[in-house]
Amino acid sequence: MTDALPARRLLLVHAHPDDEVTGTGATMAHYAASGAHVTLVTCTLGEEGEIHVPALAQLEAAQADQLGGYRIVELERACAALGVTDHRFLGGAGRYRDSGMMGLPTNDNPRAFWQADLDEAAALLLEVIREVRPQVMITYDPNGFYGHPDHIQAHRVAMRAAELAGDEGPQKIYWTAMPISVLRDGMEAFRELSDNPFADVERVEDLPFGHPDDEIAARMDGTDHYQQKVAAMRAHATQIPDNSWLYGIAGDFGGEFMGVEYFTLAKGTRGPGEGPHNWESDLFSGLGLEEPATASVPAPAQPSAAEATAR
Predict the structure, then answer these.
(1) What CATH number is given to the structural domain containing 45?
(2) Would you indicate the residue range of the signal peptide (predicted)?
(3) Mean local confidence (pLDDT), 127-147
(4) Among the listed residues 124, 170, 140, the one whose alpha carbon sits nearest the alpha carbon of residue 267
(5) What pLDDT shows up at residue 15?
(6) Which of 121, 140, 190, 242 is deepest in the core (most CB within 10 A)?
(7) Residue 194 has pLDDT above 70, yes or no
(8) In the chain, pLDDT over 90 holds for what percent of residues?
């Protein structure tokens, strides 16, 4: 299989549809446009998500319980906006159910991803790793970035699968991250927004996420693709409302915040970096797999908001 794939191969392991966009969308679009093979594995359908489209409220878990099926379509459209053609659900669509937020009764559902047998779930991901043979993998840190049980479980499954893969596994593993310096700058910038996500936060250190700058290993500048990231966000209309502060960022700051994504390095050796912190600008840095000088895959056409939300 790998003989037919591009030399550079990136695997991302996310918990729910829409998670791929917010923290890694620009990175995915960048590598897809450069000709790398990007594989996205999503662990659940996101059945317990809050619905922000009133006309679709009956899809929620407490009513028709059809949100997961709808989000499959949203994810397909988001991947199309990012130029990603290889997407899989862990074990197939619906194998694992969204666990809901930590501490809710939905955590105890026998089908919840939080209840999944670790080695069984890791074996399913191991099949993908052996098929694609990615040199680089991205997932969450041990706290799932902000503590969601499915994010934590996605981290555990990804790391266990990489362990089981041995020499066949990724040479470098990154965890999504956010430098405290960037969070601090963001808090100041967001004070001018009517929908300020940090309105109740007095100190950046009080946030449940954030890493000292010296813990960051890579800064991916995907500002050329931030409009694709915004289009992918709009594809997830049930989860990201039109008045979301994320769109405020996109409108006010463009690619400055939306197009730059950060990672810590959990496995492998840091390659050559740049800037005051010597952060990598390429996740394949140091692997001897040079990025093509020009993009070999054109950026996909961006769907309109109406197209993104249409059934």
Answers:
(1) 3.40.50.10320
(2) none
(3) 96
(4) 170
(5) 98
(6) 140
(7) no
(8) 71
Angle, vertex CA 116, rays to CA 115 and CA 120, nearest 5: 160
Mean pLDDT of the 125-142 span: 98
Contact 30, 245 (CB under 8 A): no
Residue 14 is assigned to a ligand binding site: no
Q: Is pLDDT above 70 for 254?
A: no
Going by C-beta distance under 8 Å and a sequence separation of 6 or more, which residues neighbour residue 167?
none
Torsion of CA 259, 265, 271, 276, to 10 degrees: 60
Q: Which helix (H) or strand (E) holds 136?
A: strand 136-139
Number of domains into which the chain is organized: 1
Assess if residue 104 is contained within a domain. Answer: yes
Q: With a cut of 90, say whether residue 211 has pLDDT above it.
A: no
Going from the C-alpha of 95 to that of each of 66, 116, 189, 262, the distances in angstroms are 15, 10, 41, 30
The structure tokens 């994010």 sit at 151
Confirm or deny that 206 is annotated as ligand binding: no
Provide the pLDDT confidence category of residue 296 given band limits of 50, 70 and 90.
very low
Q: Is residue 133 part of a domain?
A: yes
Q: Give CA–CA dist 310/105, Å, rounded.
A: 32
- Which amino acid would we find at residue 67? L
b/e map of 258-291 (b: 16 or more CB within 10 Å)? Answer: bbbbbbbbbbbeebebeeeeebbebbbbbbebeb
In a domain, 292, yes or no: no
Q: How confident is the model at residue 122 (pLDDT cuts 50, 70, 90)?
A: very high
Is the separation of the CB atoms in 37 and 9 below 8 Å? yes
Distance of CA 125 to the CA centre of its chain: 16
Structure tokens at 86: 């290889």
* Domain-embedded: residue 289: no
Q: Identify the burial level of 214 via C-beta atoms within 10 angstroms of its C-beta, where 0-12 means exposed, 13-18 middle and 19 or more buried.
A: exposed
Q: What is the pTM of this model?
A: 0.89
Domain containing residue 98: 2-284+300-309
Contact (CB, 8 A) for 99 and 114? yes
